[in-house]
């Protein structure tokens, strides 16, 4: 178990879930409850092979839950919305794994501890995970747009504009700061993506293209006059002006940046900075 503990994912106290908040809160509640009795379960030392496997699987499921919560805290809001069904399925798989492991361990611990486990198992059996209606609506409208596979263009496409405005409103991307954070989140996803997943890469690039193209028009409710002005600005913009705008945007994003630590200082699971890293020379 020592190797398992070394890879524990810690949720920071400032962790704020962007999208799928209710599902993540349910997961967090179960993780907190299980964490409170995990040491007691471990101290019982279920020595049989099945007991050790159940304990390891339980910890693995807890780590997956924490990683999913972190994903919903730092990823792109729009991308989280369009992958809502996948997030819900992952929550359900984690729930099933937690229930199975705890049910197995319940018969290997003292009665008092078994009673505590039983209450958690009962709650796991009745919990349901659903995508919130506003996030579901945002995800569906953007997915419908993606499925049309529209070519990039300098002119305003009303389908794109209306879809992005609706999604931004539902996901609370309604300020300049929120827009910058959303763009940066997409860029970070693009930086991490592998060439083995061209579909995801294409989707992320399209989302970034939409935000750059219509960013000035998604700050809450817009009038027809706003849209007309945005059309004119797009039609009148030149390539150098677009490059200047992109550079300005990246400069604003750099305000939130801190120097990137070496890869050796990052946890391989959570990709967060370790407090006391040990580097072994080759």
Automatic annotation (TrEMBL):
Residues 260-282 form the U-box domain. GO terms for biological process: cell surface receptor signaling pathway; protein ubiquitination. Pathway: Protein modification; protein ubiquitination. InterPro entries: Adaptor_Cbl_N_dom_sf, Ubox_domain, Znf_RING/FYVE/PHD. It comes from Davidia involucrata (Dove tree). GO terms for molecular function: ubiquitin-protein transferase activity. This is Putative U-box domain-containing protein 5-like isoform X2. Residues 222-243 are annotated as: Disordered. Keywords: Transferase.
């Amino acid at each position: 178990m020592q190797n398992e503990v070394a890879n524990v994912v810690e949720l920071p106290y400032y962790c704020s879930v962007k999208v799928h908040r209710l599902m993540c809160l349910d997961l967090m509640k179960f993780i907190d409850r299980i964490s409170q009795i995990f040491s007691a379960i471990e101290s019982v030392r279920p020595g049989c092979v099945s007991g050790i496997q159940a304990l390891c699987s339980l910890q693995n499921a807890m780590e997956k839950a924490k990683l999913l919560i972190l994903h919903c805290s730092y990823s792109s809001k729009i991308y989280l919305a369009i992958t809502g069904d996948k997030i819900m399925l992952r929550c359900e798989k984690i729930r099933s794994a937690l229930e199975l492991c705890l049910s197995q361990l319940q018969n290997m611990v003292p009665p008092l501890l078994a009673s505590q486990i039983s209450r958690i198992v009962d709650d796991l059996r009745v919990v349901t995970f659903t995508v919130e209606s506003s996030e579901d609506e945002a995800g569906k409208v953007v997915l419908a747009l993606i499925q049309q596979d529209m070519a990039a263009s300098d002119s305003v496409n009303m389908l794109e504009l209306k879809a992005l405005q609706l999604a931004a409103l539902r996901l609370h991307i309604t300020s300049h700061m929120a827009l910058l954070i959303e763009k940066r989140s997409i860029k970070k996803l693009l930086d991490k993506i592998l060439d083995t997943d061209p579909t995801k890469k294409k989707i992320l690039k399209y989302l970034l293209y939409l935000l750059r193209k219509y960013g000035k028009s998604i700050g809450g409710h817009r009038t027809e006059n706003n849209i007309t002005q945005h059309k004119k600005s797009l039609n009148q913009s030149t390539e150098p002006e677009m490059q200047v705008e992109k550079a300005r945007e990246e400069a604003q994003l750099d305000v939130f940046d801190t120097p990137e630590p070496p890869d050796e200082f990052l946890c391989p699971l959570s990709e967060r900075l370790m407090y006391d890293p040990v580097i072994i020379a080759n």
